[in-house]
Amino acid sequence: MQRLTITEWRRFRGWVGGCRSLGDVLSRQFWPLNGEALCAEARQRTGLTDFGVPSIETALSILVNSLELEADLHPLGRFLMWVHLRGLLETRLRLTQAWREHMEAMDTSLIQRPVFITGMPRSGSTFLHELMAEDPENRAPRVWEVMFPIPTRKDVWSSVDPRIRKAEACLWWFRRLAPLADAVYPMRASTPHECVGIHSYTMLSQEFVITCRIPAYETFLRGGNLGPAYAWQKRFLQYLQLSGPHKNWILKSPEHVYGLDHLLSVFPDAVIIQTHRNPLEVLRSSLQLNEVLEGVFAYPSDRAQTRIREARSLIESMDSIRSFRKAHPEFAGRFIDVDYDELIADPLEVVRRIYQRLNRHLVVPASERLQRLAARRSRYKGRHASPTLADLGIDEVFESQRLAAWRSQCNLSDTDFSSFPQQG
């Protein structure tokens, strides 16, 4: 194969850069991320006008501006985000109408003692969520009903809800765009979904931060009032449970660590399960997830800056929940702590201990379902060997010392770094 000369290589790079610039310009013209335009498009497509409460204008405006100015979206990512935002707004309009029609029934549809799983990201919360959702006495919002919450006319030739098939098709395409998705976050239409998917309808959701580099929006989200997002989530759950008998809600999102005061205000009898894991292992797994998800929407970013951002975010999340628990000893009995290593080693025993704290009994049929899931969950199709910290460019000693230094600078005296490897 003939090698390129330096001059030819520079010309090639210029051509590639020109193609990128042209693609970016054209994609901005075809799919502008403008809040007012997206709302107008959603209204036109649905024939509806009322987005209901909470108001979305401010959050949407900050979100789309951050996406435009900071996310470095490639053309496909811009198209996908444009379609996603438009879909959220359309569903928001339809939900507002549906809730108005079912207002009386929803007002009497109580959400009693829900369980929220949160804590460090990548610390086993998804696994625990799936396990507890296997108990027929529990209910978790499924991916398909969060994506498409409004019932549609059923196909007389099929017993499968058409919304499930629609969600499966969307996820199939997502796996084509992100081939490594199953290795870091396997998702199917019928698996339990995170609360960030529900919050995304309010435009106050960590979902956008997870998938794109949008620091201005993230700052807004951290400093804003998340109460409206939790009030919306309560109405959303009330609407979902109109379709069947009331069960025990099992909900999950690591991002609840930032809104525990608002969560417990809206759900005053909630129980919080906090998951724990070695922070460096969390950082390794978070970086792996970050590479997969951000690549779907944006051009590659500087890996060193990504490590800094993820490490800082990890410290902030750890400190947020520690600070809340320290400031609110009255909620001590509401928290149940789960260690990642114990969960992986003996998931059934961990769930039994949780049930004891909940004053519930794990019956034999439910425990058998949990055991079957645990056996399947340990290996996913398409899963590859996990990269090491070194593979991701992480120097264990250096990162642990840097995290400890940030801890000192931020006066995070309660953040525990004892599990970090120390320099000998």
For the structure shown, list the relevant keywords.
single chain, 424 residues, mainly alpha, Rossmann fold, 5-stranded parallel beta sheet, 20 helices, 58% helix, globular
Describe what this molecule looks like in 3D:
By secondary structure, this protein is mainly alpha-helical. It has 20 helices and 5 strands. It has one domain (37-409): Rossmann fold, CATH 3.40.50. The chain has a 5-stranded parallel beta sheet with strand order 2-3-1-4-5, with helices on both faces. The chain is globular and about 60 Å long.
CATH fourth-tier homologous superfamily: P-loop containing nucleotide triphosphate hydrolases
Our Rg estimate from Cα atoms comes to 22 Å
Helix amount, in percent? 55-70%
Uncertain spans: 8-18, 379-384, 409-424
Distance from N terminus to C terminus (CA atoms, Å) equals 49 Å
Number of helices: 20
What general outline do the C-alpha atoms trace?
globular
* CATH domain class name: Alpha Beta
Structural class: mainly alpha
Question: In percent terms, what proportion of residues is strand?
Answer: 5-15%
By CATH, the architecture is named: 3-Layer(aba) Sandwich
What is the residue-mean pLDDT, rounded to a whole number?
Answer: 86
CATH topology: Rossmann fold
User: What is the ordering of alpha helices and beta strands?
Assistant: HHHHHEHEHHHHHHHEHEHHEHHHH
Number of structural units classed as domains: 1
Q: Count all strands and give the number.
A: 5
Major beta-sheet overview: 5 strands, parallel
